[in-house]
Write the structure tokens for this entry.
Amino acid sequence: MNKTYNISTQSPMGNLNGILHLFIEKEKLQAIIEFNGKKLNFYNGKFISNNKFRFVGSLKAYFKKINYTAEGSFSDSSIEIIISTNMGNFMLTGTAA
């Protein structure tokens, strides 16, 4: 099952709008977040309960390694995620595209 959401977040660079693609295969999750033409890939997500999930990993951005934990929930119409990193916390909210 695949889901797509129009998302937004407040960042140190201001308000960012983008797209989140969520790929669900049995109990595995993958997400791709697109902001300003750049893609961030999140792998090995796991369900915590029904529609709640967690991703843990690291991204390489601007020559830095960014460790993260992303936890959130989704429905057919909306998604909400809190991403905790070693550079601060970010909340993503969105509605189905």
Notes: The chain has a mean pLDDT of 91. The CA atoms of residues 4 and 12 lie 25 Å apart. The longest strand covers residues 14-25. Strands lie at 2-11, 14-25, 28-35, 38-49, 52-61, 64-74, 78-85, 88-96.
